[in-house]
Structures are given as structure tokens and as C-alpha cells.
Amino acid sequence: MHLVGIDIGGTKICVCVGDDQGNIIESRRLPTQELKGSENALPAIEQEIKKMLEEEKIDLSQIGAIGISSPGPISTKEGKMLKPPNLPGWENAPLIDFFKNAFQKKVMMNNDANAAALAEFQFGQFKGTSNLVYLTCSTGMGGGAVANGQLVQGASDTAAEVGHFVLDINGPKCPCGQHGCFEMYCGGAALAAKMKEEIAQNSIKTEVLTIAKGQIEQVDAACLIQALEKKDPYAQKVWDEYIVRLAQGIGVVLMNFNPEALILGTMAIHSKNLMLDPLKKLLPHFAWRENINACRIEASAIGDKISELSGLALAKQALLGQSHS
Q1: CB atoms within 10 A of CB 157
Q2: What secondary structure letter does DSSP report for 109?
């Protein structure tokens, strides 16, 4: 039995067909912004899926279920996106109803961080681990948790929103309205904004800016990691501050969820031990030894397949009879 996965992102929409073991048969991309909202995008996704299945010679009768990973906030009960801050034109997009009607298949949706946590649980290096947490460590700091073998959803679909744990009430204002959120210290976008401001205001000479080809608007977390590898003093200072906040936030995660595995996304994948080694040294300042020792902390082995596998993981759940339809 085949499965269809859909991952809706701010810049691209990924559609794929695969199986319940995480094998990807074919994957396609659509540009999110060019589609200008869900009214155009949902029919375009439908057509792309049909085209992909036809070209792969897979009959619709061979498709067991569809899984949809989307930005939050969402309502799994109503089967729709609510008001995603970075996707204008997608307010109240009726994802479940649309794809259920289009394909007459079981459909399951969830937010992207929860879907990624489920993908790690089903297909990743800690497959089947009963208690795990996934942190995106990307542009933002999304999170998803599996407890006792079940995805933790929460009463309003906002469980494990770790990026909005408040680390300092006097910290920088977050778009969510709070001050000092974990994401404002450790999300890639906030980290880039901090570096741009510091470099510009203090005329700092740094490899970070050199790697960005002297264009301050091009400074990002990738530039920081490359500058670290070149032993740049400013990069090391920024990284040290980042690691302290990362350890603080992860300490809260370890104390709240007591996971057996903590899997870190994009920035951990690219920085590897530059992140993991100092993080593990600092963690005893923010969590009990029992919780630290019980948990393996690693970068995700899924890597750039997370978009496809997030959708397939949700489709697998739908196939098992856990859909919202």
C-alpha cells in the first residue's frame, strides 16, 4: 500500500508518494508564494499529486492515506490551518475536507514540528523510542513530543511549543507577544537579526561578514557556523551565548518531558559537535543528572528528507485508523 505525503512550508510545498516504511518513491516541489494562498494552492497540490501518481504508474486505488504537515496554528478537530503568521492567504484553509473530497482517502494533518517528531518516531535513528522530543533548531524553534509511544497533541493543538518557553521576561519581544522566548535566543532568524545589529552598530570585523560577501543583509546562521570553523573570535562569542540559552531551553525540555531521546534539527545537523559537545557540558546547570543521563541527544539522521517523511508519517497514522476524518 502506498501513501501520499504533503508538507506545506513558507517557501515550498513538498508532495511525495512512498510507503509505511519511509521509502520515498517520488517527490515534487511547488513554490508556495507564487500560488498566492490556499484557494490556488490546494487545487495545484491536487493536480501535482495526480500527475505524480500517473507518471509513476501508481493507481489511486493503491493509495491508502494522505498525510499533511503544515505550519501552525492549526485545529486538528476542525481539520484546518488557522492563521499562519508567515502564510497570508491560508487563513482557515480546510485541508482535511479538501483532500478527503479530492481523493476519497483517509487524511491526517498536524503542525510541522509534531509531524517531524512523528517522522523521527516512525523512521528515524530512534525509531520506536517511546519517549522522544524533536526540536527543529531551524529558522524558529519548533518542537514535538512523543510520550509513552503517543504524539502529545494538547487541548488546543499547542503541546510542546518549546520555542515559546520564556527564558527571560526582560528579554527581546517575540512576535507571539511574550518577551524572552526560547526562539528569540536560539531560532536561526533571531540569531541572524542579533548578529546583523551588532555587526552594523559596532562595525565589527568578522569572518561572519566575510562569508556573507560583505553584505550584512546576507548574514545568517550558516555564516556563523562557517566562521566558527575558521576560529573567528566574534563568531565564538555569539556561539557561546547561543549555547548557554540552548542549554537553558533544553534543560526545561528534559525536566518537563524526561525523554529517552532528544533529536535536534537543522542547525545541529550542520554544526554537529560544535553544538553538541558544549551543549552537553552545560546541561548539568539546567537539568538533573537523572534526566540528562536517561536521554541521548543527537542531530537528526533524517536530514533533508524531513519534509517528505513528515507527511508520510501522518499518512501512516491515518492508515492505522488514527485520522481526523
Answers
A1: 18
A2: E
pLDDT of residue 322: 64
Q: Given a cut of 90, is residue 323 above it in pLDDT?
A: no
Supply 274's cell numbers: 560544535
pLDDT of residue 325: 39
SS3 state of residue 40:
helix
Retrieve residue 15's grid coordinates.
Answer: 508532495
pTM: 0.94
The residue behind cell 531521546 is 261
User: How would CATH label the architecture of 2-111+304-319?
Assistant: 2-Layer Sandwich (3.30)
All cell numbers assigned to 43? 487545487
Task: State phi, psi for 65 to the nearest 5 degrees.
Answer: -165, 165
Which parts of the chain are beta strand (E)? Answer: 2-8, 12-18, 24-31, 63-70, 74-75, 80-81, 106-111, 132-135, 143-147, 150-151, 261-264, 296-299
Instruction: Measure the CA–CA gap between 58 and 135, rounded to whole angstroms.
Output: 34
How far, in Å, CA of 235 to CA of 283, rounded?
A: 21
Rounded to the nearest integer, the mean pLDDT of the chain is 96
Residue 70 main-chain phi, psi, to 5 deg: -140, 160
172-181 confidence digits (pLDDT tens):
999 999 999 9
DSSP 269-296: HHHTHHHHHHHHHHGGGTS-HHHHHT-E
| The domains spanning 2-111+304-319 and 125-301 adopt the same CATH topology | yes
Q: Which residue ranges make up each domain of the chain? A: 2-111+304-319, 125-301
Specify the fold of 125-301. Answer: Nucleotidyltransferase; domain 5 (3.30.420)
Q: Which amino acid is at 115?
A: A
